[in-house]
TrEMBL record:
UniProt EC number: 6.2.1.1
Domain AMP-binding enzyme C-terminal: 478-556
A Pfam family hit: AMP-binding
Nucleotidyltransferase keyword on record: no
Organism from which the protein derives: Thalassovita gelatinovora
Transmembrane segments: 115-136
Single GO MF descriptor: acetate-CoA ligase activity
Protein's gene: acsA_7
Taxon lineage: Bacteria, Pseudomonadati, Pseudomonadota, Alphaproteobacteria, Rhodobacterales
Residue intervals of the AMP-dependent synthetase/ligase domain: 59-428
InterPro entries membership: AMP-bd_C (IPR025110), AMP-bd_C_sf (IPR045851), AMP-binding_CS (IPR020845), AMP-dep_synth/lig_dom (IPR000873), ANL_N_sf (IPR042099)
A cellular component annotation (GO) from this entry: cytosol
Keywords for the protein's UniProt record, in alphabetical order: Acetylation, ATP-binding, Ligase, Membrane, Nucleotide-binding, Transmembrane, Transmembrane helix
Name this polypeptide is given: acetate--CoA ligase
Length: 582
């Protein structure tokens, strides 16, 4: 399919152009929303309204919106009407406790239904929602709540006692603590369950304006101190359209996104985009477990599945035979985000699930998918795909003044023309850091990439992770992908180390597949394999074995940590570190 046809299809279906609010206004219910909201001048726009109430208004209230699976094997179903009512109750509770439009509510809990109700109820009430990982320690929670000037938090009693109580008084703005799992809240806290039960199901959706702050998302902290990216209600255009383009979301489809709402994917595509698109959203409270995941895909007849390279590599590590007993015939679209997806993994998806994984690229800052292997395109394994309709992306030579576009095949910084609706509006309290991301009319992503002659984008590495060796520029991703093609290698992290003659040399950290043991011979064999694939200048000089690599909670390998340790430098901000190296 060519871009012309995509544009035509878009026009025929009345899809919202990602960067054109006027066109988007026609495709959305901006005006109906405005009517519902008492005909505010200029119209109101509210993410929660688009995600829930709108479907009820259109007679789809009985459709299953959320099917939740508890760790203990229990499950709960919510229709669109159920969620509309539950979020109205939540919004009423916030109002009853004096919270007002623009106040900030944080969530700090596992993937329980209350988290989803809180997210959308908060937006419905016109408050700003900021989700945090429940596994964060007390300090990372406190810092993020300080940055975001939290007014309220929804959490569990045990998390509160262990991670909040000790510093709560140090954040005067934090007035309210709602606890989801108790009817007898400790002093200074409110039991959410009874409050919800007592609240009314009627709530007039807050008349938020398109530019009102809606979400604060903290970046993954892979390259340094996490930033608080601010998103507005208008982002919902992008959530809706990108979900349709890049994930093929359609009303009634059974969709599973494995990301935790503690980071942006789990909110944009784990809550908002699917519900705005009218799908049935599956949520699993448990973490990755091979048989549980395969069982869920089969039993629930999942059609569309959005997951991440780190999970795919875990499945690959378990081998194809582990998937054999399962029937995945209902699956029709698989997508991946978060880290570069090794070509090996794309092909593996096809072999095991009958469909390849569609890689797509975006960031906390972009709020939604920007570059993707769309369903209608030929996938080039290892490529991130092409920009979505309405998105202008380029690879830039940022050393030039003014900066200029690179030739096909030349590596440069991946950049976007600003203006799409889900673009961050600032980094909270870090205007200077935010301003630095723009130059000559471009938003600079901090990632390096190259574009081929067919217009596909290829990820090279983070600008910070680029290795310069004997005049070669080496992207860690290329080396890591070559390494995991070796049968023994499950996962690889690659860094550059200073070297007197070469400038830098490549060092690789690898974890092994079951059945392989670290040995000098294996090390030599892996280096030999890499040399053959990459050439001696690019192949790692040294390969070391690890059981696990250091990773963020969102599943990204923290190369900077490997490097800092190797060089004896300070480790920097490791608040998002989940698994350490071992
Ligand atoms: P920080 O900005 O705090 O260092 P982070 O960049 O890891 O953290 P996120 O916004 O969660 O925080 O991640 C976005 C980054 O993840 C992208 O800039 C890119 O480096 C990487 N990424 C996401 N998807 C892909 C993909 N499909 N291919 C390659 N890299 C990807
Ligand atoms: Mg980043």
């Amino acid at each position: 399919m060519t871009w012309d046809t995509i544009a035509k299809t878009r026009a025929e279906r009345g899809f919202a152009a990602l960067s054109d609010p006027d066109e988007a206004r026609q495709a959305f219910h901006w005006d109906q929303a405005a009517e519902m909201l008492d005909g505010l001048p200029g119209g109101g726009l509210n993410i929660a309204y688009e995600a829930l109430d709108r479907h009820v208004l259109h007679g789809d209230g009985d459709r299953l919106a959320l099917r939740w699976f508890g760790k203990d094997g229990s499950s709960l179903d919510y229709s669109y009407a159920d969620l509309t009512r539950a979020t109205a109750r939540f919004a009423n509770v916030l109002r009853d406790h004096g919270l007002e439009r623009g106040d900030r509510l944080y969530s700090l809990m596992g993937r329980k239904p209350e988290l989803y109700i809180a997210a959308l109820g908060t937006l419905k009430a016109g408050l700003v929602f900021s989700p945090l990982f429940s596994a964060f320690g007390p300090e990372p929670i406190r810092t993020r709540m300080e940055i975001g000037e939290a007014n309220a938090v929804v959490t569990t009693e045990s998390i509160y006692r262990r991670k909040i109580a000790q510093w709560r008084d140090a954040i005067p703005s934090l007035k309210l603590v709602f606890l989801t799992d108790t009817d007898n809240a400790p002093e200074g806290c409110i039991a959410l369950g009874p409050a919800l039960a007592a609240a009314s199901e009627d709530f007039e959706v807050a008349p938020t304006a398109p530019e009102d702050m809606a979400l604060i998302h903290f970046t993954s902290g892979t390259t340094g101190r996490p930033k608080g990216a601010v998103h507005v209600h208008q982002a919902v255009y992008a959530h809706a359209a990108t979900g349709r383009f890049a994930l093929n979301l359609r009303p009634g489809a059974i969709y599973w996104c494995t990301a935790d709402p503690g980071w942006v994917t789990g909110t944009s595509y784990g809550i908002i985009s699917p519900l705005v698109n009218g799908v049935t959203l599956l949520v699993d409270e448990a973490e990755f477990d091979l048989d549980r995941w395969y069982g869920l895909l089969q039993r629930e007849k999942v059609e569309i599945w959005y997951t991440a390279p780190t999970a795919i590599r875990m499945m690959m590590r378990a081998g194809k035979d582990a998937a054999k007993p399962y029937d995945f015939s209902q699956l029709r679209f698989l997508a991946s985000v978060g880290e570069p997806l090794n070509p090996e993994a794309v092909v593996w998806g096809k072999q095991v699930f009958g469909h390849p994984f569609h890689d797509n690229w975006w960031q906390t800052e972009t709020g939604g998918i920007m570059i993707a292997n769309l369903a209608a395109m030929d996938i080039k394994p290892g490529s991130m795909g092409k920009p979505l309709p309405g998105i202008i992306a380029a690879v830039l030579d940022t050393d030039a003044t003014p900066i200029r576009e690179c030739r096909p095949g030349q590596v440069g910084e991946l950049a976007l023309r600003p203006g799409w609706p889900s673009m961050m509006r600032t980094y909270l309290h870090e205007q200077a850091r935010y301003n630095k991301t723009f130059r000559d009319g471009w938003y600079l992503s901090g990632d390096l990439a190259m574009q081929d002659a067919d217009g596909y984008f290829w990820f090279v590495g983070r600008a910070d992770d680029l290795i310069k060796s004997s005049g070669h520029l080496i992207g860690p991703f290329e080396v890591e992908s070559a390494l995991i093609e070796h049968p023994a290698v499950a996962e690889a992290g690659v860094i550059g180390l200073p070297d007197e003659t070469a400038g830098e040399v490549v060092k690789a950290y690898v974890s092994l597949n079951p059945g392989y043991e670290p040995s000098e011979e294996l090390e030599r064999d892996i280096r030999g394999h890499a040399r053959k694939k990459l050439g001696p200048a690019v192949a790692p000089r040294e390969v070391v074995f690890r059981n696990t690599l250091p990773k963020t909670r969102s599943g990204k390998i923290m190369r900077r940590l490997l490097k800092a340790r190797e060089l004896g430098l300070p480790e920097g901000d490791i608040s998002t570190l989940e698994t350490d190296e071992s």
